[in-house]
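Re-running Lipase maturation factor to confirm reproducibility after the cluster update. Everything else is unchanged from the original entry.
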Amino acid sequence: MQKTVYYTSVLFLRCVCVIYLFAFLSLYVQIPGLNGLNGILPARSELDSAKIGKQATLLDKLKAKPTLLWLAPDIGLNTEYAMELIALVGAAISFLAFVFRTLCTAPVFAALWILYQSLFQVNPVFLGFQWDILLLEVGFLSIVIAPLWSTRYRKADPTTSIRFWLVRWLIFRLMFSSGVVKLTSGCPTWWDLTALDVHFESQCIPTPLAWYAHHLPSWFLHLSTLGAHFIECIVPLFFFIPIRPVQYTAFYLQILLQVSIILTGNYSFFNLLTIVLCISLVDDHFFLYKEPKKPKAKSSFMSLLGVLVCIALYGGAIYITGVMFGFKLGPDNTPQFKAAFNQQHLKEVLTWFVPLTMVYGFTSLTFLAASEFFGVLRKNVGFFTKVFQLGRVVYVSLVVVSLFAISLVPYSLIRPRSRSEPPILTALEPIYAQTYKYHISSGYGLFRRMTGIDGRPEVIIEGSNSMEGPWKEFEFKYKPGDVSRRLPMVAPHQPRLDWQMWFAALSTYHDNPWIMSLAYRLLTGQPEVLKLLAQNDSFSKPPKYLRASLYTYRYTPWEKSAWWTRKKESEYFPMFSATHKPLLEYLQKLNLVNVKDWPLKNQYLVTILDSIRAIFQATDPVVSIWGVGFAAFAIMVSLFSPWKGAEMPPTSTTLQPPVPNTTASDEMSKVPMNAGSSVGVSAYLIAPFFMVLAVIFASILVFLIIRKRRLDELRHTLMPMYNFDPADEGDQDWEQELLESVQERMPYQHQLNIKVEI
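Result of re-run:
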């Protein structure tokens, strides 16, 4: 079966641009509070940690910390404004590259990779997530996949499929590693399939649907966990089987898993990026056009054979998975499971099976490269053209093999190390060590161990003007706090402070120095940091004292109207004040306060950057990011209509005489590439739908924001008047209880109005 991936690779590159757009914009709106001069972790402090001399050259600085921020003083900016400029330039380039296909070239993707790398290098705490590392690897592969200068993809290029194979190898490593590490970690919830019993409640920022998913029947959650194991551990083994039904089925199963995660959890752009990687599992036939018809009998037989092989492979895999986890029906006809193997058995198998998958992947690449090589030999082209194309195939194959070899080192870490390591891995380790800090290739594996089995821990920060209280809470925008606040939908935006608060709750404040900086910024009322939090009407000015407590949160049962119940467990960090000497000495030692930066000299550029920031601060980050994304899609469709430049078909039904000496391929060559294609027509027809959907989505968000603010104002106004504290245990249904409290103290004729307001 001959496959082409030319248009598929174009789609992949444009989708990578969208992910870059989301990533740059999401980080841009948070830079002042996270990494500004008065932020939680000033980026300037990270540059100072490089410990280079004053006489160091630019090359020395880049070796110590590879980031464009070293050039900030040359353009008259400090570190904070330079970070904003980098993020905006990255967003602008990715926006334009998505809209204009001709910009999807290697230099453009190299620029995007360097820009994101520059931000990543100075933000190890807030940009240290797996999807940031994954985006860097995907961005680097995009440089290899994209054409160097040519803006028109040629079907005759034999190296596209070889380069695009790297994406398939990456999605294999990502999914297979993510599945295997869940079992090798020894976490009992993954072995007895109870992980989803706690996952929807314990994940960082759950969506509203997560609450409902948490209350699904246990047998369904256990079956879903088994399905996740199947999709992550077994299905990736079918990625390299060159049978369309097999690969298409793998594609649909991966999309099913990622969409399910998107609906129940806010994981930034991670799941969207994973879906983009899954594009490598299909080809042009899936998206764009049909291949020339084969003889009917042969075509039908091959199609039927492919379907039968697909059914046999997946049917056998499902059966084996069920046997391995002891699937059986209980007395009440619900599924029951008990693993028929243990962790030691798995490690013994992985010792030889992981190297086998490396050989499996290399064999797939070898056959693909050989197929393209002999395909060039069979072409009826000139001698020099053939030599040039053969040289390109050999050169590109060597580059791809080199990147494949480097990726083997982090991939091999999912198995236990043996005494007799393969010599090739030992030889590759020094090479991988040289490239590690650039994250050209990395190891992956989320949710190795399930947290929050006994309830999710949450750090609640409180402030007061007196050591005796009363203490009032600082409310965050997205993480759980107020038990009655609706769960948010924020992806692809990532509120990085809220995410780090989730990690902080899993350890102590001694393990998270940044949280002491956060406490100090709250005590000093730093506006940049306060904008990362929800609007706190309880504090008209910064509190004199701050403390943090550790709570355990759980979802409410069906009969409760609130989302959470909570219980105070212990002190997280003791009471501090802004003048607390040990706190100040600790922060000064870490170079997090009184940081010296380059002077601002380019006032014209500073004014422009301030104006752009004012625009973004006027709207919710989620609305801004989705708005820019929909705008890019609408512009792309409006500028590149599938009919633009193409001659419309005649309206007359009269048959036209055939043109002599003209073949069908000659006629097709006169039509623009996007004219009449299914992708172009579909995009053209659904563009109005997406634009209307964007307006509806924005309207709903605005309505919810306004409604939430009105409810918050009502609560903060009425609760002090009627001595009602929603933080008291048992007061989870604050709306109903507040209503009853108000009605007891008000005349009957005013009760209806209050009921409507609430």
